[in-house]
Design goal:
The chain has helices spanning about 5-15, 15-25, 35-54. The protein is mainly alpha-helical. The protein has one domain (about 5-54). The longest helix has 19 residues, at about 35-54.
Length: about 55
């Protein structure tokens, strides 16, 4: 993080693993596909985009 010009990009890419892991768990590991899970993943992704662009 000390070498990055804009820390928000570093944080966003670091935290991008959370929604990606949730989606891969749903798609690959066949975890439950309840609508609230998709809503939570979408909200996390939108939040990450807002952090990266803010």
């Amino acid at each position: 993080m000390g070498f990055a010009g804009n820390i928000s990009y570093v944080v966003a890419f670091r935290l991008l693993g959370i929604p990606l892991a949730a989606l891969l768990g749903i798609l690959i590991l066949r975890e439950s596909r309840h609508p609230p899970k998709f809503v939570r993943v979408a909200l996390m992704f939108v939040g990450l985009i807002l952090v990266a662009t803010g």
